[in-house]
Write a structure and sequence with these properties.
The complex is a heterotrimer. By secondary structure, chain B is of the alpha/beta class. Chain B is 34% helix and 22% strand. Chain B has ten helices and ten strands. Chain B is globular and about 60 Å long. Classes of the chains: A alpha/beta, B alpha/beta, C alpha/beta.
């Protein structure tokens, strides 16, 4: 084999030079097939944890390998990919994953929510409303919603199979009785279609309340635990809550110092409150600034 | 009584007891692979539960009895007599090798049986959760989803059983043994079961606590109207709670009678031994 | 007696002995009908308590039968009936006072009496009053002296409205006049009452039949 006239700039090009087929978008076709099948099954049983053969990824386990596998299985050359980490496009993990996806898939990347076709996110749901043609992929560290109250996996599976979520209700009751509200700061369990209990990933309560009946699919990938869950469009999603004690969103101490909003989900950064979703904040600011 | 009250008495209770709630017929269970000589080599005649040919333990054999509503049956016998195995069969923790247990004419199922365990913490209650949460669990399991209603019902039951309101939210493991028993009883009161099982309810508790608990348990068994079984080493407690007693010895029922008769005029040598061993 | 319901306690061939003791009851028989008191007197140690306890199912006789018959509703022989039936009879149809009382020690005396008799607490308090111990009504039964506890048990037995009443030396544990008056009321109401007493028991004045238990046998003084 003779090397080409210039150094190849991608793995695919290098492999092609040596006459070997290279996987498109990093993952081999078998893995992608496996993941897609799992996604279809998960969409057919909303909220049910579907096992899949999770591969080694160039991110540490627990840092988004599941979400990444979902995105890489679905991305095409015409997609526009956005990756955020707690609302921030520029964290090192978000940047690293965005680069990996766009380079191995040969597709465009963006930080604009409205321009993206696939949005992969950790710990937030974008605050700009997503359209039906957009796809949201969430990174999930712990997919089992019963993990705090039912320690064994098999026991938890039995609870899901029998739709007996008494341990989750009991946990909620105990928190309500002793501290006046749920203990979950993030990853408050939700009931999908009134039937299946699901972990929505560690999104804040503010976002849990925004999951209901969205026009686009939401896919949740847990790489370390090797499970996928999915929410098809317009599915009912409600937080686990007593009839007389609805879930409250988090309250911030002050309006966002950048855009002035009092309605968004805000976090404390360097002792100032500001919107966590940076792109949404920018859009709001541009809309109000002449 | 008015004149000729005996004539009026015709409207009262029937002469013989009504149909039982719980019917146990020829219950038998063996631990181990067993052999065809097990039955002959064990039992009170052989003086052991363990088959000397194969080493299996015939924990219970040929146990039959009935319990009606509002009735409390006492089960006494030494450790190894089969009391615990019998209870586990009634509580569906164990499927007996043979025999039947029917409740209300149908095969027994988990939703109709409640057990009050000797040790509340060891037995499926939640030691780190609040006392009222442990009671609420039964309400939640039944589908209740209104926090205010569940909370007031749990509080009401705990109050009835003597737990102070300010302690309702304390973790169960911070309560004394007697108080934990009361929480278990409160759970039973949530939804009166058809069958109530009490496993050594007063064993290991201080005497004054036992006395209080006996009072509470008598009230509860009466209020529930369930068919109840009390298993205990403590003959005095069984005497207070039970109207009838069966005596288990090496897996067999060796005597059955009204409580006063078994304790005052035991017929079987083993019962006589048991009764005479009481401290007076 | 009017009405078709006639209560009768029929004892036949009753025998009982305890290990290494001479025979306490030897082929004893009696028939106690509703509306009357059958009194069995005897010297101390003659077997009166044993006799009562054989009647109430507490003791298992070595031979013989004790049949409770209630009008057209049937009959039950407690010596052969299964334990459940005996327990049911004792709980619903037989009022017995046989020197044994088991109750949770913290319960007030009136509550214990009300439970045994299956009646209301105020009735129980009134019953205790007839024996001049209404002051003991709220006292936990475990704190009463032995004799007072038995008085409470006696009041509970007399209070229960049942067709069969079996009493072991009732006038020993409460004022004889009160006991006699009360037993008289019960027999007037049609109950079949069997009682034991000392040789000079005051109950003899209202008894329909009196017999003396001596050396295991009953010698009838009156029919």
């Amino acid at each position: 084999m003779t090397p080409g006239p210039q150094r190849p700039s991608t793995v695919a090009a290098l492999a092609a030079q040596h006459g070997r087929p290279e996987a498109y978008a990093y993952l081999d076709e078998d893995t992608k097939r496996n993941v897609r099948r799992a996604i279809l099954k998960a969409l057919a049983i909303p909220g049910w944890q579907v096992p899949f053969a999770s591969r080694e990824m160039p991110v540490a386990r627990g840092w988004g390998s599941g979400g990444l596998q979902v995105t890489l299985s679905l991305v095409g050359p015409n997609d526009v990919v956005k990756v955020i980490d707690q609302g921030d496009d520029h964290s090192s993990n978000a940047v690293g994953m965005r680069k990996l996806i766009s380079e191995s898939a040969g597709c465009a990347e963006t930080t604009s929510t409205t321009a993206a076709t696939i949005i992969q996110s950790r710990h937030r749901i974008p605050e700009l409303d997503l359209r039906a043609d957009q796809l949201l992929v969430l990174q999930v560290p712990h997919p089992e919603p019963l993990r705090r109250v039912v320690p064994a996996d098999v026991a938890a599976l039995v609870h899901h199979a029998e739709r007996d979520y008494t341990p989750a209700w009991l946990d909620l009751y105990d928190a309500e009785a002793r501290i006046g509200g749920p203990r979950t700061a993030a990853d408050h369990p939700v009931l999908v279609d009134g039937a299946r209990l699901m972990s929505p990933s560690p999104i804040p309560r503010y976002d849990v309340l925004r999951l209901n009946r969205r026009p686009h699919p939401i896919l949740l990938g847990a790489g370390r635990r090797a499970r996928l869950t999915a929410l098809p469009p317009y599915i009912d999603v409600a937080p686990l809550a007593f009839e007389d004690s609805p879930l409250d969103p988090e309250h911030a101490g002050a309006p966002c110092w950048r855009c002035g909003s009092t309605q968004t989900y805000r976090v404390l950064a360097e002792r100032r409150w500001c919107c966590s979703d940076i792109d949404a904040c920018r859009v709001r600011l541009e809309a109000t600034t002449p | 009584m008015t004149t000729n009250a005996v004539a009026d008495y015709n409207d009262r209770a029937p002469l013989v007891p009504p149909e039982p709630v719980v019917s146990v017929r020829r219950l038998a269970h063996r631990f181990g692979s067993g052999c065809d000589r097990c039955i002959d080599l064990t039992g009170e005649a052989a003086g052991t539960n363990r088959c000397c040919a194969c080493g299996s333990v015939v924990a219970v054999y040929d146990a039959s009895f009935d319990i009606g509503p509002h009735e409390v049956l006492g089960v006494v016998g030494e450790s190894g007599s089969g009391k615990t195995t019998l209870l586990r069969c009634l509580h569906l923790d164990l499927t007996p090798d043979s025999g039947s247990i029917s409740v209300g004419g149908q095969a027994i199922n988990r939703s109709t049986v409640v057990m009050v365990h000797q040790n509340a913490l060891a037995a499926g209650l939640y030691p780190r959760l609040a006392a009222e949460s442990n009671v609420a669990e039964r309400l939640l399991g039944g589908g209740a989803r209104h926090f205010g209603e569940i909370h007031s019902r749990a509080a009401e039951l705990l109050n009835e059983l003597g737990l102070q309101p300010e302690r309702h939210t304390d973790a169960l493991m911070t309560f004394s043994g007697g108080m934990q028993q009361r929480v278990q009883l409160a759970r039973a009161l949530v939804d009166p079961p058809q069958v109530l099982l009490l496993d050594e309810p007063t064993t290991g508790l201080d005497p004054s606590v036992q006395a209080d608990l006996l009072d509470v348990m008598q009230r509860v068994t009466e209020a529930l109207g369930s068919a109840s079984v009390v298993v205990s080493h403590d003959l005095a407690a069984v005497r207070v709670l039970a109207s009838r007693i069966v005596v288990l010895h090496h897996g067999r029922i060796v005597e059955e009678g009204i409580a006063e008769q078994v304790l005052e005029d035991p017929q079987h040598p083993y019962t006589q031994l048991l009764v005479s061993s009481r401290l007076t | 007696m009017t009405g078709s319901a006639v209560a009768e306690i029929a004892v036949a061939g009753l025998s009982k002995r305890f290990d290494a003791h001479p025979v306490v009851l030897d082929d004893v028989a009696l028939s106690a009908r509703g509306g009357g008191l059958t009194l069995i007197v005897g010297a101390p140690g003659s077997g009166k308590s044993t006799f009562v306890r054989c009647l109430t199912g507490v003791y298992r006789p070595d031979a013989g039968g004790v049949t409770y018959r209630l009008g057209g509703r049937g009959a039950v022989d407690v010596t052969t009936a299964d334990a459940r039936t005996v327990a049911w009879l004792r709980a619903h149809h037989i009022a017995s006072f046989d020197g044994l009382l088991a109750a949770a020690p913290r319960l007030p005396a009136a509550v214990v009496a009300a439970r045994v008799a299956r009646c209301s607490r105020p009735s129980a308090v009134a019953a205790l009053g007839r024996f001049h111990i209404s002051s003991l009504a709220p006292v936990p039964i475990g704190r009463l002296r032995g004799t007072d506890r038995l008085t409470v048990a006696l009041a509970a037995a007399l209070l229960a409205e049942r067709p069969f009443v079996v009493l072991d030396e009732p006038d020993r544990y409460a004022d004889p006049d009160s006991v006699t008056r009360w037993v008289r009321r019960l027999t007037d109401d049609g109950a079949a009452v069997v009682a034991t007493g000392s040789l000079d028991s005051a109950l003899e004045s209202i008894a329909t039949a009196t017999g003396e238990l001596r050396r295991g046998k009953i010698e009838w003084r009156r029919p």
